[in-house]
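Lab channel / #folding
Pinned by the channel admin:
"Please post every new chain as: sequence first, then the structure tokens as a reply. Keep commentary short and put observations after the output so the thread stays searchable."

First post following the new format, from NK:
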Amino acid sequence: MSKNLRNICIIAHVDHGKTTLVDFLLKQAGTFQAHEATADRMMDSDSQERERGITISAKNASFLLGDVKVNIVDTPGHADFGGEVERIMDMVDGAVLLVDAVEGPLPQTRFVLQKAIDKNLKIALCINKVDRPEAVGSDMVSECVDKAFDLFVELGASAEQCDFPIIYACARKGWCTANVDDIPTLLEGGGERTLRPLFDVILGFPAPVADANAEAQLLVSNIAYSDYLGNLALGRLASGKAKKGQELIRHGVDSDGKAVTQKFQISRLLSYEGMKQVEVDEIIAGDIGLIAGCEVLEIGDTLSGINGKALKRISVEEPTMRMIFSINTTPNSGREGKPLQSRDLRNRLFNEIRSNVALRLEDTEQADQYYLLGRGELQFGILIEKMRREGSEFMIGRPNVLMKTENGVKMEPYEKMTLDLPETCSGEVTKMYQQRKGQLVSYEAASAANTEEQRVRLIFEIPTRGILGTNSMFKTATRGSGLISSESIGYKPHAGTIFHRQTGSLIADRTGSTTEYALASVQERGVLFIGEGVEVYEGMIIGECAKDNDLNVNPVKPKKLTNMRTTGSDGITNLYGIKNMSLEKCIEWIDDDEWIEVTPKSIRLRKKQLNANFRSVRKADRV
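Reply from TO:
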């Protein structure tokens, strides 16, 4: 029966077109009725995914090719969400590797391909965006295939994996071809503009190997929740059959890592039809589905028949950095949202790590503060924004990398960082990252001859500390046209001191509402983050000081009113401009002695020590 099944995933670097390709695969396979309205990037269902234009969590769907059911998983492309990619690899037998025809293989391409090769998956290469102006009429497409082949060999792919089928596609227009010579005709509007060649490749992937007569076994790869059904275990049935009402055993681990078992009865079974979850009476070996009925679930658990054994638990790469979460202790606590108490905050973070194996939770010396361990700033920023939209109030500190000691030597995580930018900006960017202990290991031209702007690709090996907080500076240096991506390359000896920020903070020294008159004099000392009429409190950061020391200022001072008339310009003040600090910019900007106050309505910066007479303004005395 499993011969009529195919389980595949789409893997690629961020923004190479995975979700767009899945859209057209579903449409052209006849998943939707002719009258059904469909949105772009249907698989990006989360509000933050649609706003940011990236995939954050892996999504499942299915479609029919004749009598063959194809289960397809769309995966994230950003390195911070690598844990999502690692845990879904156990559910599939084949992978479509998407590579941008112009950008070629990038760091996350290497990461996801390595995972697919390690799992011994059948892999097909899809060169996407062959319609980009830089690729048209150039040798870029064939060069991209050569680079991809070199990457397969470098990552230790088997001879069978290196003999991969190649598809050339324009995902946003819904066509592809297996013949590179057909690309010019298709670009001009001729030829068969469908994804049929890719469908043929998918049918060529191996069917899942599973024994339908053995005990049922399912490795929990993801957890969903339904208001009506409770917890849902998502995974591929490795063997046997699962039927409604059947008794299963959950093989899990407790907080100490000891094995525990729990018996439960299947209350509902769900399978995928298109993007919908539909109730079924039975799931066969090799198929992907959801099982309801078990109250306690964790990713990595095994659900088996009464005599079944546990499968190997899912393992992902270790976190490389951590961020501290705290209850809101500012004078404004409770005014704009629900202030999380320490127990509520811990439970919320614990629920998050249950559904995300790439995150860890650790206690601190303070009862109301917790360390969340993860992969990167974006991963933390997504969670913080999600909690904020839930109506919660809390505080966060600056992310710090996780050090370790080997044979008495202090080690820190390093990353291989790839930068694609205009050649005119390369000098400034190189200097910026070399000052942060980065080593330039590659410098090469990255654009075709038929483009006006010459671009280059720089590759650095740099401590993770050196990358933190540089995203805004990189965008400024490249006038917004630079692309940056990175991958972890393990631990190396500690690189020494790296200065995070050369400037200090402008700090309100009293509570009140800001006035334009007061801010006009404060702005001479630096850059303001807030305008007039904003409620501030002692210790709240209102701007960036031009010098490296902090400066306590009075932003609420009113102009004294008199009955003396002076020149016509008297009383007219002008603020030069306010620097809007988004959540991501705040995470990049803050130092170790500062907090970000997060509420549903506002993002504020503050000092950990609010009282001015209890903290020094000297940079050398900061925590």
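NK: The two ends are 63 Å apart (CA to CA).
TO: also worth noting, The chain has five domains: 2-203, 217-304, 321-396, 404-493, 504-621.
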